[in-house]
Amino acid sequence: MLQVRKSQERGYADHGWLRSFHSFSFAGYYDPAHMGFGNLRVINEDRVAAGAGFGTHGHKDMEIISYVLSGELAHKDSMGNIESIPPGDVQRMSAGRGVMHSEFNHKKDETTHFLQIWIEPNVRGIAPGYEQKQFSDAEKRGQLRLVASPDGSEGSVKVNADARLFAGLLDGEEKASLALDPARKSYVHLVRGELEVNGQKLVGGDAAMLEGETQLTLGAGKDAEVLVFDLTA
Asked: What is the pLDDT at residue 130?
């Protein structure tokens, strides 16, 4: 079964300094039909205005991934990490038993556009942790590159969750495929461009939710950037 959710069906919030699309219920957006998918709890597509950001706030028992699309995101946390996250980097923060952090766009004339992703952990109360790695466009071109996994395989960041995340760039005749376990769930989020997912056309911001499928086939891309999640049922 494949179900498409269009970009415009997502929740939306405009706070002036922050404009955010919510794929699942978050903050002031509540939709009981979209509370998450498998152990994927949040995908927020955020645009942070120049000179603005999220002040210091806390998280607990959640695997949080930041995926920057344009601009840069400055990160500071109670573990002592002070990092800048540019496009192409994947940042993983394990909130564990508790962590405080802030995220800021220090640019004076550029919006920071990024995806904030939350995945429910398979272990709770652990010490908080942090990891950040760069994945070049060449690694993602015409294929699905593993960028997050439970064991950090293939140079991916390690998440304390039963989930894997792939990133890909597809255009023209480029195709990519992935064998799926029909007992699990898969979630495809099209970041930008156009793409066919098992024959269904998606445009930027659209998502496809797959259950009981054995194969994922991506093609007919037009400047497409895509994230694919392998999740618990």
From this structure: 97
Could you report the per-residue pLDDT of 96-134, keeping only the tens digit for each?
Answer: 999 999 999 999 999 999 999 999 999 999 999 999 999
H-type alpha helices, 167-229: none
Given this model, what pLDDT does residue 29 score?
97
| Per-residue CA distances from 98 to 32, 79, 110, 186, 188 (Å) | 27, 10, 31, 29, 30
pTM across the whole model: 0.97
Residue indicated by tokens 């793409």: 195
Residue 75: CA atoms inside 13 Å, Cβ hemisphere, count? 27
Q: Running DSSP on this structure, what letter comes out for residue 29?
A: B
Contact 68, 132 (CB under 8 A): no
pLDDT value at residue 142: 98
Which residues partner with 77 through β-bridges? Answer: 101
DSSP state of 9: G
- Cβ-contact 190, 216 below 8 angstroms: no
What's the one-letter identity of residue 113?
H
**For position 137, what pLDDT does the model report?**
97
- The dihedrals phi and psi of 231, each to the nearest 5 degrees, come to -130, 165
Q: Which residues pair with 22 in a beta bridge?
A: 11, 44
Tokens 């989930």 — which residue? 163
pLDDT beneath 50, residues of the chain = none
Do strands 164-172 and 144-149 pair parallel, antiparallel, or not at all (unpaired)? antiparallel
Q: How many CA atoms lie within 13 A of 79 on its CB side?
A: 17
